[in-house]
Amino acid sequence: MEETLIVAVSGNPVIYDTTLPTYKDVDLKRDAWLKVAQLVGRPEDECRKRWKSLRDQFVKERKKCREASRSGAGGNTPPKWRYIPVPPTPHFQGWEPEMRPPQAKRARVLSAFEKAILEAIRAPSTPPPPAALSSVDEDEVFFKSLIPMMRRLSTEDKEDIKFKIYGMVFEATRQSSDQ
Hints:
The longest helix has 28 residues, at 44-71. By secondary structure, the chain is mainly alpha-helical. The termini are far apart. The protein has helices spanning 2-10, 26-40, 44-71, 112-122, 138-151, 155-178. It has 6 helices and no strands. It comes from Coilia grayii (Gray's grenadier anchovy). Residues 136-175 form the BESS domain. Residues 64-87 are annotated as: Disordered. It is found in: Nucleus.
């Protein structure tokens, strides 16, 4: 369960990444925990408790590792956290390079579910498809594209350009209504 939980949580940075603007969004966190619980196949509160325990254990082990490497004693080897072999994802950084994975005694066989989760996390994310061109108002896009340039102008120049645009639009509409 622990490896699956780590992988599932790593795909939901809103749970652990305090630098995100959405980190304090309670609704997003609740939704993320519901997704994690569904992936892990355990109740949400159990996933939260186990994650807190794993996170606390990791922080303690990382601290021990840093202290061991700082002491300068050649005989001290850094402690080994048993879940370090879980592959880090782009969303979950934090594995310390001085922490070495334990020597594997036997290869662990991943279930089909775990393989699917790992493939989903490792697959590059694709951006959402662009809005259909028919739903884009070309006139609105054009006038919005002028905004940055207009903001750089003095108030007097802005008023002059606005007046000229109004005059051109008025003249064009008058000509089209005469025809």
